[in-house]
Amino acid sequence: MDEKNGTERIKQLEELLKEQQQSARLLVRRDLELARANEKLQEFDEIKSNFISVVAHQLRTPLSGIKWTLNMLLNGDLGALNNDQKTFLMKSYESNNRMITLINDMLDTDRIQSGKMHYGFRYINIVDLLDNVLFEISPEAIKRNISIEFKRKLENLPQVYVDPETMRAALQNLLENAIKYTIESGKIVLDVEQVGDMLQISINDTGIGIPEDQKKKIFERFFRGRNAVKRETDGSGLGLYIAKTIVEKHGGTIWFESEENKGTTFYFTVPIKIEDIKKN
Amino acid sequence: MGINASVGVGQGDDSYTVGANACQDAIDQLSEKNPDLLIVFSSVKYDQEKMLQGVRSVAPEAMLVGSSTSGEITTQGPLKDNSVVVMAIKSPEIKYFTGVGENIKVNPRAAGKEAADKVKAEAGPALKAFLMIPDVLAGNGADIVRGVLDSLGTHFPVVGGASGDDFAFKKTYQYLNDKVYSGAVVGLGLTGNFKIGIGVKHGWIPVGEPVTVTKSSGSVIHEIDGKPAIKIYEDYFGEEEAKVLRTETLAKLAITYPLGMKVAGSDELLIRDPITVDEHGSITCAAEIPEGSEIRLMVGSRDEAVKVAKAAALNAMEQLEGSAPKAVIIFNCIARNKLFGDKSGDEIKAIQEAIGNQVPLIGFYTYGEQAPLGGEVKNIEKCNSAFHNETVVICVLAD
């Protein structure tokens, strides 16, 4: 009886082994199919990426040409303009600029997604970079009577380990958003402080804020807040996605606090120079 | 004043300029501008001689070792475009010695020994670690390592990576000072007052039942369970894929399904990459699988690969006994790059989580890795350096 049971048990185990081997084959074949499908998708993605890149580059060149021509006209290089002509040309100039910004955002997004964004990390003073970006964007703030100030005097801050080019793009996106979504005569307050082995940068605005139910989506590509769309402010919905990717590539984090119709504060962190961490 | 390292990148079309730019970029970031050592990894897209001349034009005095690759890695992660990457190292505490062994095709073991003998003759008994860059398209990688150990002793910490050629499996190159070699192994010996940590792991998982290699010679498996070796892949892949197996380079199809064999001294199976298959169905691997070995087909998962990469980095860090890491050299199998696809940065990020993302890092995607089994270097009696495949080897230097 025992012998019979034993033989049956062996038979069962052999069956099980056979089934297991069959499952292993299926697993490998499925895995292979998925790997092939993934390769195909990557190929398509590459084609899409190249297409966007070519189209965006092709568009940027004539847009730059238009910008140059409009600039000449507005400067009166081709003769004096009356007020109406100036107003309409100015509108064209601004629209053209917005298109250039959109194209640049698309190219940045494509570079991020295809892993072609190059980061050349260096030790720099973040306040210098911040001042530089502020200098560039301040005309828009002045035009809309928005004040930009620092919460405290920025002194003795350690150097940070960043890629100046991409970090500049992240700062610019956040600051441009703050200006864009702040109502006329509003206020933007900036702060930089050391928190552990990171520098924390904050940008507080008295803007339209982010609706509670849309807060989760704010860093997604092409996402734009309901109230932002309503106000007809221009935007690609790519700026925050770009900023988040850049900050995270630096080993930092980005987050925000916001209340609709009151304002938003964006915070992000960047790593401090190793030697400076030890000093402090 | 300890180890000072930096990493530069060059990209573009002109080989000489790209080489020069990569080296200049590295030196620009170095506090002293006269590095002792340059480690150069380059895509085969570039004319190798001209690229190296470009590198040397910037730092003619430094000692130089390097390799062609199947993808370059830097502190910023794996590079998506063909590049030249250079690590420049300056340290008053480390001395470097180099050697080359040629004609791997004729005798891989003798080539390994020749490279190590030259290093040993100059470095003497103070030799602390040995880094090697072999060409395994020319011969059995395990034999090259065996030759190195013939010279340095059975238990000696060896790390390295086999040269690549952008996944073409045709011809790879090794660099030593001003010269570009092929079919050779370049060795770099280190002596002095420094610490080294080595992490080694793969994370591939066996599937299906074990089978036995019933006929093999060197790195060629002729038969498995009495049938032509290729049958194992035909069996798992199914008829459609099996047809392709015989017409294309096996490595391109099977590299993410390697073979694993049990060896003493490692809790993981030792991996062997299949590279080519002949008309009789014999498979040539990147290194040997001895007759009688019990082997399994292996599959990979990204999650597991990321997990073990971090674990390997932590192992390497532990060996530094609290010293701050100053330079990281990674030898990472091309199969892992294929497994990750466009997410290959995740693995390097995981390594940097353990080591720090500001520590200068250089590496490349290889056709085989060399390191002690289980990353054992502290207990020298248990340090058994071997030839690995599909594995990530992390080498960390500290003061």
From TrEMBL, chain A:
EC number: 2.7.13.3
Record keywords: Coiled coil, Kinase, Phosphoprotein, Transferase, Two-component regulatory system
Domain Histidine kinase: 54-274
Top-level taxonomic group: Bacteria
SUPFAM superfamilies: ATPase domain of HSP90 chaperone/DNA topoisomerase II/histidine kinase (SSF55874), Homodimeric domain of signal transducing histidine kinase (SSF47384)
Chemical reaction(s) catalysed: ATP + protein L-histidine = ADP + protein N-phospho-L-histidine
GO molecular function, one term: phosphorelay sensor kinase activity
Positions in coiled-coil regions: 3-30
EC top class, as a word: transferase
Stretches that traverse the bilayer: none
Protein name according to UniProt: histidine kinase
Classification of source organism: Bacteria, Candidatus Zambryskiibacteriota
From TrEMBL, chain B:
InterPro entries xref list: FIST_C, FIST_domain_N
Residue ranges of every copy of the FIST domain listed in the record: 34-228
TM helices/strands, residue ranges: none
Domain spans labelled FIST C-domain: 229-373
Protein's recorded name: FIST domain-containing protein
